[in-house]
Amino acid sequence: MRPNHLHRSATGLVSAKAQSRILTGAVEYVPVARVSNLGQTIDRLKEEGVWVVGTDVAAQESVFGNGVFTGPVALVIGNENKGMGRLIREKCDVLIKLPMQGQINSLNASVAAGVVMYEVLRSRQAQD
């Protein structure tokens, strides 16, 4: 059960290594926090009642209609070549996938993040 006292807000978390390559332009609209240890940050978020949702092409759960976006969530999007590392994947409360058809089994990380964030927004608007 997730606590409902946490606000529904958006903050981007990026590793120190990835900061220069991602979120170009988005920093004007979404606060971004640079973290040096993603694993410790995930642990802290979980202590605060935030569900950590990771994307993985091998996940069983679909991003759509799964009910995990009702409370505070942190999204973890792996890189385009290797996805998430094993330790980060294990720290996630749930792994979800974007359903794909044909020969392509994944999207560009920024596109995948956009699709997942839109589903978070859509799910929350449907609740209200």
Automatic annotation (TrEMBL):
Q: Which GO terms describe its biological process?
A: methylation; RNA processing
**Keywords associated with the record:** Methyltransferase, Transferase
| Cited SUPFAM superfamilies | alpha/beta knot (SSF75217)
State the GO CC annotations. Answer: cytosol
| MF annotations from Gene Ontology | RNA binding; RNA methyltransferase activity
Superkingdom, according to UniProt? Eukaryota
The answer to whether the entry has keyword Zinc is no
Q: Give the CDD domains listed for this entry.
A: SpoU-like_RlmB
Q: Name all tRNA/rRNA methyltransferase SpoU type domain ranges.
A: 18-118
* One Pfam family recorded for the sequence: SpoU_methylase
The protein, known as: tRNA/rRNA methyltransferase SpoU type domain-containing protein
